[in-house]
Specification:
The chain is mainly α. The protein has 6 helices and no strands. The radius of gyration is 16 Å and the shape is globular. The mean pLDDT is about 90.
Length: about 110
């Protein structure tokens, strides 16, 4: 987390928004990232590098340079890989469990 906080010290709100989008997209590409690794790669460990196709997709979809994509991966790959980024089902469950009693419903 210290490395992440250090990287975000001078970040703009636009930079943070890009990082959040990046995390959402990258977390949904874990299978594609894993398929491109050597067969000896352990699936529970975040790969050190992203395949070129993933780098290009993230760069284009997040309006980032390929260098920024690779730098972000270096900083947050473990967060993405360990499942810390919630998927749609997890978000829905959180709203059902904690939000409905308070009048919160996920907006679609």
């Amino acid at each position: 987390m210290q490395l992440l906080f250090k990287a975000l010290q001078n970040a703009t709100s636009r930079d943070v928004a890009k990082l959040l989008i990046y995390a959402q997209y990258a977390s949904r590409l874990k299978n594609e990232i894993l398929v491109a690794q050597k067969s000896t790669h352990l699936p529970h460990i975040a790969p050190m590098f992203l395949p070129d196709s993933i780098v290009i997709f993230l760069a284009e979809s997040c309006a980032m340079t390929t260098e920024d994509v690779e730098e972000c991966w270096e900083i947050i790959r473990d967060i993405i890989w360990d499942g810390s980024v919630p998927d749609d089902k997890t978000v829905d469950l959180a709203f059902q469990t904690f939000g409905e009693a308070r009048g919160f419903r996920e907006c679609l």
